[in-house]
Structures are given as structure tokens and as C-alpha cells.
């Protein structure tokens, strides 16, 4: 099966086609269809003062569960994901904006060099993407641990900045993760709406070789796209991905350097008022986390 040293192929019959995954779980979701812009979020669409954000989310209906980055010390319940390891990568870090020299340092991404990390974007009201990604990551971890999975975060705002994009990939590789999901939200023009999932392209060069993870990551990504649309009711983005909600890229260090199945998820456009209203809602973030968890579970259960 696709990627090195992960559990044997018994895991999966045959990758679901994108359309099939979307169609299968989108039947009930109004508004399936639309597309979006990529990037190690915020990087591709720089915004002046993009992250001059306040810290907490405007609406705190459902509190986000918090703990530390490392796997939970408490015994995990037995469940369908017992024995599986999932790494969650909360995009950016709230401290990045105070460490611009450190995050601008160039690191090797196999096919070239890129900044260590970026500040991320924010809503017009100042809700920072870096806070959004931690919130959704905490909710996602709680849902996966409840299924018995061993979950690790690449950081939990428990470090002044980063980790750098190469270290984020390394954490997933060294954990021998069965799946890795990098959580982001985009910063694009008003009117650009919806979510998209970024898949690794086939890349070989320097320290990068994605040949073993392209197929499995495409399967993981398609299932996440389908379930995300179903649980949130959000449409796949209307400005990238041709209404599939999927986009393949070869210039993201976090994907290029991964040796385990991995995707990025851009949950919506923080700069569009309608999307921002969703992203700043704790109950919508809970649905987003549920969609990510269902997609990951569906992938791991095959
Ligand atoms: Zn981002």
C-alpha cells in the first residue's frame, strides 16, 4: 500500500473518486459546488495587518476543549480508531506576528526554499486565523480521541512561534501517523467563498518524495471534502478547484516533506463577511471539526 511503514493495506479497499465521495455525502447538503485559493494560508494572499487580531473568538457558544500538544496521558476509550495515530497541524501560531525575523528564515522544502512560517490571515473584525486553527484542532482532537485514536498536535501555542513548515512535516513522519491534517482558513477577496482541501502533487527533489502518499492522501482528502460539506452545509469553494473542493499543489513544504498521508484544509475565507460569520461561530467550528473527524474516520476505516 501507498505509504511507508504504516499499517498494511487491509485498511482500504479502493480510494473513493472525488466526485463519488462528494456525491455520496453531499446528497443532503444544500449548496454543494464551488472552489478556492490555496497556500500555506495567508501567505498566498497577504493582507495588510492581516493578523492584527485580537485573541479570542467573538462568539463562544460551545467552549473548545483544550489540553497540551502531546498525546493525551489519560487512557483512551476503545473505539473504531483504537491503535491509529492522527497528527493535527493547527496552521500558523498566534505568536508568529511577534517573531517575524524567525518566521521569515528560509527552510528547505525539497523543491526549493520557503519561509519557516507565516502569520496567517484574520477576519475584518480581527479574529486571527491562528486562533481559529487552534480552536478547530482542539475540537477535532477531542472527537478523534473519543473514537480511540492517539492524537498529537504539532503545537498548542505552547511555543513562541512556528513550528517551521519542515518541522511540521517531520512531526507527522516521526509519529508514523496514519493520517495528518493541517487546519487553515484562507484570506481572499470578498465573494470568494467555501472550503477546499489541498492534496500533495507527485514531488521528488531534495528531501521531498511524495510518491508513496499521493494516492492515499487523495483518498483522505476526498473523504474529508465530502464529510465537511455534509456536516457544515458549506459549499466547496467557488474560486479554486472547479467546484470539486479539491486542489493539488507541489509548492507546500508541509506536504512535499511528508512521508505519511497528509492534506491541508482551508475551511473558508476569513475575508468574506458571510464566510467570516461562519468561521467566528463556535457551533459552526464544532460542525467543521465533526466533518474533519468523519472524513478521517471514514479513511482509516476504509
Ligand atoms: Zn493558514
Characterization of this structure:
The chain is an alpha/beta fold and 302 residues long. The chain has one domain: Aminopeptidase (3-Layer(aba) Sandwich). The protein has 8 helices and 10 strands. The strands form 3 sheets. Strands 4-1-5-10-6-9 form a 6-stranded mixed sheet, sandwiched between helices. A two-stranded antiparallel ribbon has the order 2-3. The chain has a two-stranded antiparallel ribbon with strand order 7-8. The longest helix has 20 residues. The site of zinc ion (ZN) has 8 residues, from loops.
Shape: globular
**Domains (count):** 1
Compute the separation of the termini in Å. 13 Å
> What is the assigned CATH homologous superfamily?
Zn-dependent exopeptidases
**Mean pLDDT across residues:** 84
Q: What integer value in Å does the Rg equal?
A: 17 Å
Question: What characterizes the major β-sheet?
Answer: 6 strands, mixed
CATH architecture heading: 3-Layer(aba) Sandwich
Separate helix tally: 8
SSE order, one letter for each helix or strand? HEHEEHEHEEEEHEHEHH
* Order of strands across the main sheet: 4-1-5-10-6-9
* Strand count: 10
Low-confidence blocks of residues:
1-18, 21-62
Amino acid at each position: 500500500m501507498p505509504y511507508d511503514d504504516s499499517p498494511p493495506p487491509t485498511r482500504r479497499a479502493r480510494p473513493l473518486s472525488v466526485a463519488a465521495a462528494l456525491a455520496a455525502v453531499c446528497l443532503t447538503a444544500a449548496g454543494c459546488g464551488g472552489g478556492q485559493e490555496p497556500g500555506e494560508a495567508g501567505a498566498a494572499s497577504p493582507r495588510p495587518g492581516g493578523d492584527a487580531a485580537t485573541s479570542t473568538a467573538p462568539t463562544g457558544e460551545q467552549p473548545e476543549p483544550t489540553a497540551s500538544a502531546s498525546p493525551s496521558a489519560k487512557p483512551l476509550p476503545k473505539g473504531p480508531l483504537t491503535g491509529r495515530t492522527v497528527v493535527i497541524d493547527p496552521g500558523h501560531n498566534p505568536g508568529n506576528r511577534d517573531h517575524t525575523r524567525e518566521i521569515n528564515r528560509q527552510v528547505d522544502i525539497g523543491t526549493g526554499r520557503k519561509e519557516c512560517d507565516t502569520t496567517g490571515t484574520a477576519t475584518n473584525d480581527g479574529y486571527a486565523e491562528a486562533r481559529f486553527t487552534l480552536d478547530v484542532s482542539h475540537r477535532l482532537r477531542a472527537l478523534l480521541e473519543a473514537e480511540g485514536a492517539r492524537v498529537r498536535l504539532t503545537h498548542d501555542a505552547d511555543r513562541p512561534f512556528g513550528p517551521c513548515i519542515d518541522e511540521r512535516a517531520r512531526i507527522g513522519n516521526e509519529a508514523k501517523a496514519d493520517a495528518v491534517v493541517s487546519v487553515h482558513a484562507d484570506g481572499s477577496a470578498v465573494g470568494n467563498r467555501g472550503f477546499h482541501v489541498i492534496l500533495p502533487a507527485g514531488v521528488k527533489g531534495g528531501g521531498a518524495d511524495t510518491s508513496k502518499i499521493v494516492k492515499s492522501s487523495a483518498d483522505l482528502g476526498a473523504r474529508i471534502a465530502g464529510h465537511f460539506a455534509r456536516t457544515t452545509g458549506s459549499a466547496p469553494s467557488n474560486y479554486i478547484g472547479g467546484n470539486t473542493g479539491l486542489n493539488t499543489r507541489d509548492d507546500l513544504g508541509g506536504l512535499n516533506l511528508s512521508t505519511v498521508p497528509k492534506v491541508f484544509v482551508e475551511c473558508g475565507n476569513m475575508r468574506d463577511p458571510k464566510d467570516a460569520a461562519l468561521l467566528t461561530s463556535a457551533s459552526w467550528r464544532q460542525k467543521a471539526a465533526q466533518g474533519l473527524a468523519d472524513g478521517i474516520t471514514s479513511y482509516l476505516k476504509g
